[in-house]
Amino acid sequence: SLCEGGELFTWGQNTHGQLGVGSQIALTPEPQLVERLKGIPLAQIAAGGAHSTSVSLSGAVYSWGKNSFGQLGLGDTKDRDCPTYVGALEHWKTVLISCGADHTAVLSKEGLVCTFGAGGSGQLGHNSTQNELLPRVVAELRGAKVSHIVCGRWDVPMTCLLRQHTLVYVRSLDKFYFFGSGEEGQLEDERKPNQLIPIPIDSPVNTGKSCQSNDHCRYVQSVFVSSNPIGYSLNFVNVVMYFSQNSHLNGIATLEDKEVDAWISKSGCSESIKRNIRLIFSSEACINGSFLDKRDKHFKTSKEVSGIDMSEVKRFYEKISKNQTVYQEV
């Protein structure tokens, strides 16, 4: 659970270190703080079968947990019990990440997709069934400018079979692309079982509206439906996708100009303003996230490059100095 104040808490099964708390105790029933990510302004978290990932507001990707197939993107198959920086994605400008049972997909700001981990069903989209230990660009999607990604899995009832797949959405074409397991009705036209490269499929829902003119352009529920041999239907993906131009990198509480303007426009400092100030300025993650460089330089954040726009920090303090009550509270 990612809190508004920037802290990440995890609990539950931990057989492969997927909770990221530095130990591999089999079960942790109470929420535990993931210390390794403290102070990092997180935008998103994602969980797979037994591995976890997170993306910071600066586009840095961290992964931990099970790594039998290379699903952590670290170049090996060793499990990690603490969040580990995925150096191979350092210049990727990550805006979205999704985890399947044993594979991971990452979306860049430019709309490129890379995948890694288990590839036995073709779910990586590289025209093979090989596993990938490092992030690899899905070549067939170059130039498509993907706007959303989701990794899926489905356990076939009364069997030990596991179907794995990846689904991406291209806003400009209003079209979905699918790759991975195609059995049991995941694909409406019953193509061959495993799709090794992305293939276009018609949008399951037709809103009758153009995505070019609507920020919240598509709401898709139960994308694919399958039937088992007994004859009853069940949802295969049962994923709710809410595609929005502003849906990426918006995890924790950060300062907004409109909010600050509202603070200084009031004569005093109300309790709600004080609560917001305490929330943001008591958290390293929220402070760091509030002053990231907005000119894409924050995507290059490293030990050498802070990614913080100090001119924005100066501008903020100059602005709130107009209201001494707010200034003192900060």
From TrEMBL:
Family matches, as Gene3D superfamilies: Regulator of chromosome condensation 1/beta-lactamase-inhibitor protein II (2.130.10.30)
Superkingdom of origin organism: Eukaryota
Keyword Transcription regulation: no
Keywords: Ligase, Repeat
Annotated InterPro entries: RCC1/BLIP-II (IPR009091), Reg_chr_condens (IPR000408), Ub_ligase/GEF_domain (IPR051210)
Pfam families found in the cross-reference section: RCC1 (PF00415)
Record-level Gene Ontology MF annotations: ligase activity
Annotated RCC repeat ranges: 6-58, 59-110, 111-152
Keyword Repeat recorded: yes
Protein name per its UniProtKB record: HERC5 ligase
Species this protein is from: Motacilla alba
